[in-house]
Amino acid sequence: MSDERAAAIDVRDAVKRYGDFTALKRISLSIADNEFFTLLGPSGCGKTTLLRMIAGFEDVTEGAIFLFGDEIETLPPHKRPVNTVFQNYALFPHMTVQENVGFGLEMLGRSRAEARARAGEMLEMVQLSQFAARKPAQLSGGQQQRVALARALAPQPKVLLLDEPLSALDLKLRKAMQLELKHLQRDTGITFIFVTHDQEEALTMSDRIAVMSAGEVQQLGTARDIYERPRNMFVADFIGETNLLEVHVDRIAEGRALCHLGGGHALSCDAVDGVGVGARVHLSVRPERLALSAAAQGDESLAGTVREHVFVGTDITTLVDLAGGISLRVRSANSARASAQMFEPGAAVHVTMEQGAGRLLVD
Amino acid sequence: MAKRYDLRVYPGFRAVTFLCLFVLYAPLVVVMVYSFNASPSITNWEGLSLRWYADVFTGPESAKFKAAARNSFVIALVAASVATAIATLSATAILRGGRFRLRLVSFGLISLPLMVPEIVTAVATLIFFNAIGFDRGLLTILLAHIAFCIPFAYLPIAARMQGIEDTYEQAAMDLYATRRQAFVRVLLPLMMPGIVSGFLLAFIVSLDDFIITNFVKGAGVETLPTAIFGSVKQGIRPNIMAISTMLLAVSVVMVTLSWLISRRDTTR
Amino acid sequence: MAGGAASGGGPRADTYAADRTWLLLPAWVTLSILVLAPVAMMLVYSFLTKEFRGGVIWEFSLAAYDQFFFDRGLFGDEPPRIEWTYILIFWRSIWQAGAATLLSLLIGLPTAYYIATRPARQRAVWLFLITIPYWVNLLIRTVSMKFLLRDQGPLNDALLGLGVIDAPLSIVNTNLAVQLGLFYSYLPFMVLPIYAAVERYNFALSEAAADLYATRWVILRRILLPNVRPGIIAGCVLVFVPSLGSFLAPDLLGGARNFMIGSLIEEQFKGNAGNWPFGAAASMILLTLVLILLLAFARAQSRESR
Predict the structure, then answer these.
(1) ipTM of this predicted complex?
(2) Fewest CB within 10 A of the end CB: N or C in chain C?
């Protein structure tokens, strides 16, 4: 039955209901073999539910889930060749690190010796060999995290599920683990499905991201796609920082839309499907794609007044008031302080948008 | 330096607490002290002696007390073991069985022996054995004890289980353990402090019981409490104080053990 | 909370949902046979005719309940009058249990409060100290109490020796002795729920009240007590219910004048003077009282938590 070319995980029209509450509203997505795939969304969006359905801890109310072409809905968790790294690791506190890592193989019926040898290899891989005889409680958070990874990878699953595995770590450790996870995925060639609410984490690690909200996939694409071409308000707002401007589409020609902002301002951007002439929609512009200058640069520069500068370390965000009650955030790199801080609060400036930076949103 | 005005402190509450402890411990301490009295009279103090302890083991009533002690411990051991096993299974169903209609009813049934007054349980059990023509003896005591020990075993076991996240079993099953393997290899070891604690409490409760035992025991079959009660009816004698002190020591040791074990947190 | 699994009314842990029937079977079988069936049988027996040597004759009769509530004279041929003997015994039991509950509350509330305001590490030890005597054999505790309170007992010796009193106090065989015995039997049931409630209490409320010029005792009465009320009610029920049907304390400490329900019932099943249907009927009445009380309590608690 298994098809070599089949997707690692194929979710078809999956619905999950708890009584009256619908946690997942008919989701379909396909995750390719050897892919680092991320489910991203705020808490309560259904991403963990979907992960647990793949792992087998929740049943599917409607629809089906396929693993390399085989339907797995009828398989209990202990028969699915899929392993999970749990959010709080769920390391068995009464077993040693080695026993934890070898547990899966032992349950698969391998000899104790084989399980121990394989656990040793895995611990070497995550550089924890010297802690094999310890109990999980004697390890630091980062070490426990690596044990959980080793334990889930030891039985060589076809797909590895990671449920917010980094959320309990401090920032520095989290950054290091992000890279380590990415390398591990590349080296093992195992499909990773990663759940997180941290957009930066998702953008850093993933081949593809599914942004979820309210039990639905809002957008599915590569990190670049999602950041630069958000499909709707939710995605634009959830990922990164953005200026959301209410616009009126005046004219569409040659794939370009001319949008009216009010206050006499106008901007042009790429037209998108589903937004026609006369539509009242939102235009998203990332603050780093806007630039400040004293004189107008081309005919689409917007004239305004500097309100204040906000120092954010690597960058400076400048708030600019335009006529018509519109407010813009403009971000410039800290090294280019000359250009940003040339303008005292109250100074008149022009704001220019980079070519192709504006994105019309389907609401 | 003036003492900080502490809202939480109410004058007199500490004194009441110490009074409370005094009232709780004074009778026990007095009996313990008098069990070492050399005098055959319980009123006079004639110096330290272990003669009443010797009397318990060799005196005229020693045969009766030995038989009663053996009965008490055998019943407590068996009743607590059976009750603990039943309670462990029930807790697993109630706390790991999802939502189901009989969940609350089952919990109510298990806690029923705690709600029904002991004397009523005693009467009902006696009547029941009488109605079905079951001869009263050791077995009737044992059966009755199993029933009322179940909730005492259940409470610490359930409390423990509630503290164990179900991700541990899920992790085990994710790693290819069957439900049974996940139970035996992961859940049971994690629950062990609760189970031991439940067993010890059930054991003490069984050892402690007087009313129900008194109703359902056969003629001539005694447990320690019924034997002591029989003796006390003729007046408190020093050998009773010696037995009491020993039984008290058993209870205190077991509760202390139970407490220490339940405080051990294996999930950290 | 991560994801929808835990939110929006997701299921509780259900790892062993498939096994729950056989997991619960032993408990159901045991408790049905050894608790439910006996109570049902007791109800049946209370409507049977008494056998003079103990036991019953299988013939329907209301005699047991009739005897409880009505007096028909020595030969049973006079017009029925209300029989006060047993009602008074019940009333005395309720009164004694109530007094013991009040005593437990007066001592238990400050104790529970004091323990709950200790540093976290000390609390467990304090609770342990309070509960340990409870686990000592009830019979031994009651006998110890009797020994301590006796006319020639250590308490009187000590008081006489200190010159507090001139003649020994007669405490045994009084209501006070029974109340002390009941208090001693069930005190932890009062302390534990109140302790739990005080521990959950948010002391910022007390601070807010103090900030608004309330004194300590006003805070206690107006802020603290209303907030820990569920714990107090639970404690009172947990002490009152077992006290009502207790046997050892009234029997050993109370003597003949302080007869309570427990002794009345016990008497019916001992020796040849017994009357099994009457004992069963008295037990049914006690059980009904207790169940009504527990039901009222459960309703009050669920209203409180809403």
Answers:
(1) 0.86
(2) C
